[in-house]
Each structure stands twice: as structure tokens, then as C-alpha cells.
Design goal:
The complex is a heterodimer. Chain A contains 24 helices and 24 strands. By secondary structure, chain A is an alpha+beta fold. Chain A has a domain of 75 residues: Penicillin-binding protein 2a (Domain 2). In chain A, strands 2, 3, 4, 5, 10 and 20 form a six-stranded mixed β-sheet that branches. Chain A has a five-stranded antiparallel β-sheet with strand order 12-11-24-23-22. Chain B has one domain. In chain B, a hairpin with a 2-residue loop joins strand 1 and strand 2. The chains are: A alpha+beta, B mainly alpha. The interface between A and B is large, with 43 and 47 residues.
Chain lengths: 614, 375
């Protein structure tokens, strides 16, 4: 190393370092300027944006579930209510070890696989700091056991919430329906805002049809939350608007009497007030406990209901399609009279069978040796098949179909329940489309006694007989009487039923209705077994064969279905009834119980009259 | 130096100023005390009015100021003499820590020495400028390429060991301290440019050497929305805190971001965001001004230092002080990726505070141990 390099030039070194320090100072000034610009950028230029973000950070809107409206019968008997129940909820982000926590809980309260699966499903749908229910409707003992072990269960809490409950249980399950947890399919159709706090939705019946009114409007609480989602305090709240209470037209006492009258029989009963179209009773028997469905039904309970040969889940009055059978006869008679195909005096001889010209096929009467000489009155009274075979072939299928359509067959009645079936009014076009086979004259003949493809629901049968009772005024049957908002009895107008007027001469109506009275009053009448009664009553029976056999000792499931349509009192009809019992002959007994109850005590007559006035 | 002081010092050696007797720089000490007080004030709000935190931090401060006082008493010549030993000791401890950390299967940064948590990496922040200043003191300036080639491993071996711990923040500061000595010692601008190009060229290599979480941080820095609830959360929430502060802030103790814990690390690395939220742009400017006064005083002391060793060391630690506050504020405001560098004297924590105060102690020693008669 050369000497000059080792010589230190102090002056030069000081100059060098001073120069470098100046560069440093410039550099520092430059970097500081960048910092200040960035601060100004954040705090002044973008201040509004970050203020919004900051507010959004700590203020959150918590939706508040509205209380579901109650459902009453026409006299104020509670059919659906909300009862407080305790549930055990888990807040995932406050739990140390979720698996372990669930294990502990499982030893304290038994958790079914269904409940665990449900919980896991919800875990995915919710945020980490949401309360997710694990088991609902805890017993008091279970609540106590969890409370005792609370110290080793962080993030687990007992919560009181309202649960839908049907105090009467099974009796109204097919009409009122039930609520259940909102499923993925429903999530796509509901208003996500209004249901943001709701866990339940109407699944069936009135609960489904009047979902909007019953649900109410969601409320909001504005709350301050910290970064872990923990609530610090509530700032303000917009109250939820509770759902409307609904009063149904049903009479729970009548419903009870009707269902109990069925005894062991499967079947359906629909009772309508002809003047108003209000449905007084609606039974599909057997039924099931709707409370099972509220929290999600257990798998084996559901299997049991589903596989039962009695089909308790099947809604017979809405979905049950039964042959109209001989109850078709009054309508055909009316059509024949008003279009002058027959006169009341016209009579024919019934040998027990009927044969079309140019055909070898023999149509039997239900009575092996026939009814002898029969006019229209007698034909209805004793339900003469040969008379109506003749009538039908004289009328032709077009006329038959047109009168049935006028009385509401072949189309849903429009009642305030969802999924109603419309039944079938058989026609040549219908047969060709459905079966690809042309219409034979024989098809018309059996249509005369309501067999073949003529099918209707019990609700349609009731609606038609109510129309008959009204002498042609057809009202849409309905179930909602009034709505009530939050205790304030704001009676709404009844839904206006669609009214169709069927025109026929008074004499024609009289002829048919008198014949129907004879069904009960005449010893030859098919409903004579009804027995003595203080009120006037018009009735028509029917029998639908399950298999074509006359043997008496058939196995139960192959026995005939029996039908009755009726109304009373004849002059001022207050009640119209359709009853069907499957594989048993019970409708007349049931009818008697219903009418005796409803018309036998003056109080009911009075109550009904009062309601019709208001 | 003012002529009056010069006279006093020259003509009245027995009546030295009280500051000289204590070997403290009055101006720097006042500024540091003021910064420490402001720091405690912000920390009180940031810690959600936790008196425990304030007590702990006060203890840190007390100890740090004691170290400052202690180090100020040791004359620069002694520091120069000890430089090599300190560097070697620091390097060995760094290796020991790495081995212990490796055995313990986890990040290990400190050694438990008589109940004190000693971080060798912190020691290196002092040791590197000391040894380089000593080395260059003996050589004519500006330094030659050969010396630079010797200096580079001195800087980068401990820096890499520190980065391996992993403590990227301290590693960056170690490199800063070393490079700043080179820079002050007349590092050739061509060479400086070459180094920068070299660094950029070696970025892929660095990327490969980085820990996964460090890569994540850099990726997230480039695009915070990439991971709004993970690493990006820090940056987003910090920007929200500062931005929502506005011109004058939400007021002391009224920040919602920190009191509701949206702001992560709000007592340590991200404490500046609390200042931004509660005191606004004006408050931030005042704090920056205080920092700049300290930096200015540091540069002044550097300028007035009497020998090359003192000048190089003083300049280096002043630059390191500035770089730590610059990187901290830059990462909190989203200008730089999140690396763990605390805000000097404000962030909660003792280790880096003690190092910082120790270096200021040596700075004061340089200022107060001048030979009375120059030239």
C-alpha cells in the first residue's frame, strides 16, 4: 500500500462528510414530504371515504324478528300460538374447541344426528360471531344441566325464543298447516331483508297461504360492535311490526264433532255456510301433529307418517280425487229440467239394466231387479241408475260437462289454501288427450251416474252442494274471516267471493231439492236411515266402487267409498256438507252428528246469523 | 459552536456547563423526554386506558434513559476501543440464539440473561456502525472498493442471521445502519448505483429466501384487498383509522378503530394510526415535527463531531433513527409493506427503545467529550 493513501486529509474528510450529510438532509426532507403528502391524502383528500368505512366498521344493523301472527277459529279459539322455549346456541368464535364443546353437550343433553347435521349446515351459512341454535325446545332439566356446566362451555348460551305451537294438535293440521325452518329453496323466493331475522316460514295450509300477513315486518336495532363482533351497546331500534292475527271461518267445536264422528274411518268432511262461502269445518282424517314439523321432524317420525297405509299426511279434502258417483245426479237432473229434456212427470220403466241401441253392453242398476216405474223425483230419491243412464244418453256429454262446470267441477274452487286440485270433468277431448282413445257413447252413459272419469275433491263436492242450496249462487269457499293487527281489532272486510249465478226456473230448483228431501224422508230414500230430525234437510248419497264386485265380505281396503252431500235447512240454508268415508259407509252417521250439533242448538244458529250480519 | 460557548469552554475549564458535567446534550434530552411523554399520552389511549401498560412502558423508559445516561458517560475513544469486541460478542450471541431457536423449533429472538431479555440483533444495530466507524476511522476517506468489500460481509452476515430469526424489521435497520456508514464515508455514487441495481437484481433470490408469511405480507402490501380479513386487514384498518381522523382527529380517547379493536397491533407497530385517528392531520404533523427536531439535532451533533469515528457513528445512528420512523409511518399509512419496525419511543415495548436510547447516549457522549482545545 502506497504512503499517500494512508495520509489522512482532515479538511477533505470533513468536507466529504459535510457534503454527505447535506445529501442526507435533502433525502430526509424528500422522504418526509412523501409522508406528509400521504397523510394529507388519507386524512384530507380521502377523509369522507374513510369516515364512512370507519362508521361501517363499528355500527351494525341487527335485524329483529317480528312476532308471528296468531291464528284463531271464528269464536276466538286459539289454533296457532307462539310459546317461549329455551334453546342452546353456540357462538363459534367464542368457542375454544368446537368438537370438544359439542362432545360435552352431547353428554349433558342428547343430540340427534339430525340436530348435529342441521347445526353444521347452519354453521356454514352464518358468520363466526352469530348465535347458531344447536338444540331447540330444551326441557327444564336440560336447561339446568347446561347451566351447571356453563363454566366449561364458553361460547355456549341458553336462549329464550318464541316457537310456533299448535295447542289443539292434529285436528287442524290439514287446514292450518304448520311452519318450519326456511330451506334453501324458500331462501330464493323470500324477501331477504324482511326475513333476515326469521327462522320459520309457513310450509302448508293457512300458515303458508297467509304467510305475508302472519309474518309481519322485520325491525332493526343499530348496535355498536367491536372487531370480534361483540355487542358493545344498542344505539337505536326500529321496532319490528308483528304479523297480523287471523281469525278463520272454522268452528273448532264443529270440527271436533265432525272428526270424532268419523271414528276409525278414513275420509274427508267439508262444511260450508252457503250464504257466505265460509268454511265451517274441514276434516281430512287421519291427520297428524303439526308440532312435530316445527323444529324439523325426526327422521323415523316422518317415515312412520309417510309409510302408514292410512296416509295421514295426505290432504283428502284438497288433494283427494274421488268419483263424483251418484251425487252427480241432482246437477244432471237440474240440467235436464231446465233444458226441457225431461219433465218432472216423465217416467220410464227400470228393469234393472240399461242397454244402448246398437250395443250389446249391459249397464246394471245398483238394485239387481230395478226400481220399476221411475220419474225424476223417484230417480233421485232411490238413486235410480237406469233413469240417469237414459237421461245422460239423451243429454249428451256436452250438456253434462257444461252443467258440472257451472257448479264448479273440473276447476279449483279458489279457496285460500295452496295446491288445491281441480278434479276432472271428463269430455271427448279430455279422453283423447289423456288416454289417446276416442269417446264412446258408453262413456256418456256411465257419466250419468258420476262414474268413469268424473272426479272431484270433497271441497268441490261441498262447494257444489252449497251452490245448489243457494239455488245457483256460487260463492268461492274461503277460510279467512278477519285479520287483526297487534291487538287492535281492525276487522277487515271479508274476502269478496267470486259469485256466479246459475240460472234455472224456480220450479226446476224446487223439483230437484224436493227430490233430495225425499232421499231422507221417503222410506225408499237412500238416506232414510238418517232418522228423525227437526229441521228440513236435502241430501244425496253416492257410492264409489273401489273394485267391481258385489261381494259383502271384501277385505276392508276393497270396500266401496261412500259419499253424502247435503244442506239444511232447505228454505234458508245455513249449512252445506260434503262427506266421504273411504272403504266404509259412515257419511250419514257423521252428517247427523254435524247437523244435530249445528242446527240443534239455537245458540249456533244465532251466532251464525250474527256473523252474517256484520 | 457559538463563540460565547467556545470562550466559556476555553477560558473557564473549571466552570463547565452542568450538561457537560453530566455528559448530556440538553436539547436532545429535552426533545427525547418530550417525545417519550407524547408517546405515553398516545399509548394511554391506544391501550384502552390501561394503566398497567403505562406503568410497564414507564419502566421501559426509565431503564432506557438510565442506559442513555450510562452510555453518555463512556468517552467515544472507549467506544472505539470496544467496538470490535462488541461486534464479535453480538455475532456469537446471534448464532447462539439461532441455534436455540432451531432446537426449540420456533422463532427465537432473545436470550434470557439474568432475567433480562437480551436481543443480540438489537445489539448489532449498535455494533455494526461502531465497528465500521472504527474501521474507516483508520483509513483515508473516501473509502476504496477494497474496504467496501470487507465491510459488506460485516454488515450482511449478521443481517441475514437476523432475517433468519425471523426479524425482517431489525435486519433492515442493521443494513441501514451499515450502509449509512459507508455512505457517509464517501461510498462512490457509481458503486452506490451499482449496489442498488445489484439489490434489485437479487430480489428474486431474496424472495426465495423469505419466509412464507413475509412473502404474504409483501403480496398483501401490493394489493391489500387480496386478503381483506388476513394480512391485508392490518393495512386496510390502519388506513381507515388514519383517514377517518381528518384534519383535527376524533379527539383524545375518542378513536373508534382502536378502542373497538379493529386496529391490530394498535399499541405497538400501528400506534401511529391511533395518533392519526385521534389527533388528525395536525396532530400527525406535530409528531413528525418533533421527530424531525430530533433528527436535526442528531445531524447537528454529527456535523460538530471532532473525529471521523464520531462523525460516522453519529451520522449513522441518526439516519437509522430516521429510517425506523419513516418505515414505521410508511407501513402504517400503506406506503410500504408491513415489516415489524416500531415507532421509536412511542410504540409499546422495551427492546428497540433501549437500543435507540443507548445510541443516543453514545451520541451525547460524542457531543460532550470533545477536546476542549481544537486544532
Amino acid at each position: 500500500m502506497s504512503r499517500p493513501l494512508l495520509l489522512k486529509n482532515h479538511q477533505r474528510e470533513i468536507q466529504l462528510i459535510t457534503q454527505r450529510l447535506i445529501i442526507t438532509a435533502i433525502g430526509i426532507t424528500f422522504l418526509m414530504t412523501i409522508l406528509i403528502i400521504q397523510l394529507a391524502n388519507l386524512e384530507i383528500y380521502h377523509h369522507t371515504r374513510y369516515t364512512t368505512l370507519s362508521t361501517h366498521n363499528w355500527l351494525e344493523l341487527i335485524p329483529i324478528e317480528p312476532t308471528r301472527g296468531l291464528i284463531y277459529d271464528r269464536h276466538g279459539v286459539l289454533l296457532a300460538e307462539n310459546i317461549p322455549v329455551f334453546s342452546v346456541d353456540i357462538i363459534p368464535n367464542q368457542v375454544v374447541n368446537l368438537q370438544h364443546t359439542i362432545q360435552i353437550l352431547n353428554t349433558l343433553i342428547t343430540l340427534s344426528d339430525d340436530q348435529l347435521n342441521q347445526f353444521r349446515k347452519q354453521l356454514k351459512q352464518h358468520r363466526r360471531f352469530d348465535e347458531i341454535p344447536l338444540k331447540l325446545a330444551l326441557t327444564e332439566e336440560e336447561v339446568a344441566r347446561i347451566a351447571e356446566n356453563q363454566f366449561r362451555l364458553p361460547g355456549v348460551l341458553i336462549k329464550a325464543r318464541l316457537m310456533r305451537h299448535y295447542p289443539i294438535g292434529a285436528r287442524f293440521s290439514h287446514v292450518v298447516g304448520y311452519v318450519g325452518r326456511i330451506n334453501m329453496h324458500e331462501l330464493q323466493t323470500i324477501d331477504p331483508v324482511n326475513y333476515s331475522a326469521s327462522h320459520y316460514i309457513g310450509k302448508l295450509g293457512i300458515e303458508k297461504y297467509y304467510e305475508n300477513a302472519l309474518h309481519g315486518t322485520v325491525g332493526y336495532g343499530q348496535v355498536e360492535k367491536d372487531a370480534s363482533g361483540k355487542l358493545v351497546r344498542t344505539l337505536q331500534a326500529i321496532k319490528a311490526i308483528p304479523g297480523k292475527n287471523i281469525y278463520l271461518t272454522l268452528d273448532s267445536q264443529l270440527q271436533q264433532i265432525a272428526e270424532e264422528a268419523l271414528d276409525q274411518s278414513r275420509g274427508a268432511i267439508v262444511v260450508i255456510q252457503p250464504r257466505t262461502g265460509q268454511v265451517l269445518a274441514m276434516v281430512s282424517h287421519p291427520d297428524y301433529d303439526p308440532n312435530l314439523f316445527v323444529q324439523g321432524i325426526q327422521q323415523n317420525d316422518y317415515q312412520q307418517l309417510k309409510t302408514s297405509p292410512d296416509r295421514p299426511l295426505f290432504n283428502r279434502f284438497l288433494h283427494g280425487l274421488y268419483p263424483i258417483a251418484s251425487t252427480i245426479k241432482p246437477y244432471l237432473a237440474l240440467e235436464a229440467l231446465r233444458s226441457h229434456i225431461v219433465t218432472p212427470e216423465f217416467s220410464l220403466y227400470d228393469p234393472g239394466w240399461f242397454q244402448l241401441a246398437n250395443s250389446l253392453h249391459i249397464f246394471h242398476d245398483w238394485r239387481p231387479y230395478g226400481h220399476g216405474t221411475v220419474n225424476l223425483n223417484k230417480a233421485i230419491t232411490s238413486s235410480c241408475d237406469v233413469y240417469f243412464y237414459t237421461l245422460a244418453s239423451k243429454m249428451g256429454i256436452r250438456r253434462i260437462d257444461s252443467v258440472l262446470t257451472e257448479f264448479g267441477f273440473g276447476a279449483a274452487t279458489g279457496i285460500d289454501l295452496e295446491g288445491e286440485l281441480g278434479g276432472t270433468v271428463a269430455s271427448p277431448q279430455w279422453k283423447y288427450q289423456k288416454k289417446g282413445v276416442r269417446w264412446y257413447p258408453g262413456d256418456t252413459v256411465i257419466s250419468g251416474i258420476g262414474q268413469g272419469s268424473m272426479q272431484a275433491t270433497p271441497l268441490q263436492l261441498a262447494s257444489a252442494v252449497a251452490t245448489l242450496a243457494n239455488r245457483g249462487t256460487r260463492l268461492t269457499p274461503h277460510l279467512r274471516l278477519t285479520e287483526e293487527t297487534n291487538g287492535q281489532s281492525s276487522h277487515q272486510n271479508e274476502p269478496t267471493p267470486i259469485t256466479t249465478q246459475i240460472t234455472a226456473d224456480t220450479a226446476d230448483w224446487d223439483t230437484v231439492i224436493t227430490a233430495m228431501q225425499n232421499v231422507v224422508n221417503s222410506p225408499q230414500g237412500t238416506g232414510f236411515s238418517y232418522g228423525p230430525h227437526v229441521y228440513s234437510l236435502a241430501m244425496k248419497t253416492g257410492t264409489a266402487q273401489v273394485i267391481s264386485s258385489r261381494s259383502i265380505n271384501l277385505p276392508e281396503r276393497f270396500r266401496d267409498h261412500h259419499l253424502v252431500i247435503a244442506f239444511a235447512p232447505v228454505d234458508h240454508p245455513q249449512i252445506a256438507v260434503a262427506i266421504i268415508t273411504e272403504n266404509s259407509n259412515r257419511p250419514i252417521i257423521v252428517l247427523r252428528q254435524i247437523l244435530n250439533h249445528y242446527l240443534g242448538t239455537s245458540s249456533h244458529v244465532f251466532a251464525t246469523a250474527k256473523h252474517t250480519d256484520t | 459552536m457559538s463563540s460565547r460557548l467556545q470562550n466559556t469552554l476555553t477560558h473557564n475549564p473549571l466552570h463547565q456547563s452542568i450538561w457537560r458535567m453530566l455528559h448530556l446534550d440538553g436539547i436532545l434530552l429535552c426533545l427525547l423526554l418530550l417525545l417519550a411523554a407524547v408517546g405515553l399520552f398516545i399509548l394511554y389511549s391506544a391501550s384502552d386506558k390501561s394503566l398497567h401498560t403505562i406503568e410497564m412502558q414507564s419502566a421501559h423508559l426509565l431503564f432506557a434513559f438510565f442506559i442513555l445516561f450510562l452510555f453518555a458517560q463512556i468517552p467515544p475513544i472507549t467506544w472505539q476501543r470496544w467496538a470490535t469486541s462488541i461486534y464479535v460478542a453480538g455475532g456469537l450471541l446471534l448464532i447462539v440464539v439461532l441455534i436455540i431457536g432451531h432446537v426449540g423449533k420456533g422463532a427465537q429472538r432473545w436470550l434470557n440473561l439474568f432475567g433480562l431479555h437480551l436481543q443480540p440483533a438489537e445489539l448489532m444495530k449498535l455494533a455494526i456502525p461502531l465497528i465500521l466507524a472504527k474501521y474507516f476511522h483508520a483509513l483515508p476517506l473516501p473509502i476504496k472498493t477494497r474496504s467496501i468489500l470487507i465491510a459488506l460481509p460485516i454488515i450482511f452476515i449478521p443481517a441475514l442471521l437476523t432475517a433468519k430469526q425471523p426479524d425482517l424489521g431489525t435486519a433492515i435497520l442493521i443494513v441501514t445502519a451499515g450502509i449509512s456508514v459507508l455512505f457517509l464515508a464517501g461510498l462512490n455514487f457509481k458503486l452506490l448505483g451499482g449496489t442498488i441495481v445489484g439489490v434489485i437484481a437479487s430480489l428474486p433470490l431474496v424472495w426465495y429466501a423469505l419466509h412464507d408469511y413475509q412473502r404474504q405480507r409483501i403480496l398483501t402490501f401490493l394489493n391489500p384487498e387480496r386478503d381483506p380479513l388476513g394480512t391485508g386487514y392490518h393495512i386496510i384498518q390502519s388506513k381507515i383509522a388514519i383517514g377517518s381522523g381528518g384534519l383535527f382527529g376524533k379527539g383524545f380517547l375518542h378513536g373508534t378503530q382502536s378502542t373497538l379493536h379493529f386496529l391490530p397491533e394498535h399499541t405497538t407497530d400501528f400506534i401511529f394510526a391511533v395518533c392519526g385517528e385521534e389527533f388528525g392531520f395536525v396532530g400527525c404533523l406535530l409528531l413528525l415535527m418533533l421527530f424531525m427536531l430530533i433528527v436535526s439535532r442528531g445531524l447537528m451533533i454529527t456535523l460538530q463531531a471532532q473525529d471521523t469515528f464520531s462523525r460516522l457513528f453519529a451520522g449513522s445512528i441518526t439516519i437509522m433513527f430516521f429510517i425506523s420512523l419513516f418505515i414505521n409511518i410508511s407501513m402504517v399509512t400503506g406506503l410500504l409493506p408491513v415489516v415489524g419496525i416500531p415507532l421509536p419511543l412511542v410504540s409499546y415495548g422495551g427492546s428497540s427503545m433501549v437500543t435507540m436510547m443507548a445510541s443516543f447516549g453514545i451520541l451525547m457522549s460524542i457531543q460532550t467529550h470533545k477536546k476542549l482545545v481544537t486544532n
